[in-house]
Amino acid sequence: MSTLSLNHPKSLLEQVEALAEKEGISVNQFIALAVAEKLATLATADYLAERAKRGSRDKLLAVLAKAPDVEPEEYDKP
């Protein structure tokens, strides 16, 4: 483990402390989880943007054209 010092508004720390207590975890655990969630979100956004670059409208339409034109099952209807 390593140490990280943070400077932040008192009101932010109070909110973090309250949420950490509500979750039954320490402030350190709460902050580590929050940072991990943010990193995962950013990585996912980058991944999806990269995948979108490889997309092709023509290929999508070709796949959709292969789908049968049938009524949905009763349980799939609104």
Written description of the protein model:
This protein has helices at 10-23, 27-53, 57-65. The protein is elongated and about 60 Å long. The model has no long low-confidence stretch (mean pLDDT 94). It is mainly alpha-helical.
Defining traits:
single chain, 3 helices, mainly alpha
DSSP E strands, number: 0
**What is the first-to-last residue Cα distance?**
52 Å
Topology as a string of helices (H) and strands (E): HHH
Query: DSSP strand (E) fraction?
Result: under 5%
- Tally of contiguous helical segments: 3
Low-confidence stretches: none
Percent helix, as a range, is: 55-70%
- Structural class by sheet pairing and helices: mainly alpha
**Main sheet makeup:** none
Mean pLDDT: 94
- Rg from C-alpha positions? 23 Å
The backbone outline, from C-alpha atoms, is elongated
What is the gist of this entry?
With 78 residues, this protein is mostly helical.
Please give the structural blueprint.
Elements: H1 10-23, H2 27-53, H3 57-65
Helix pairs in contact: 1-2
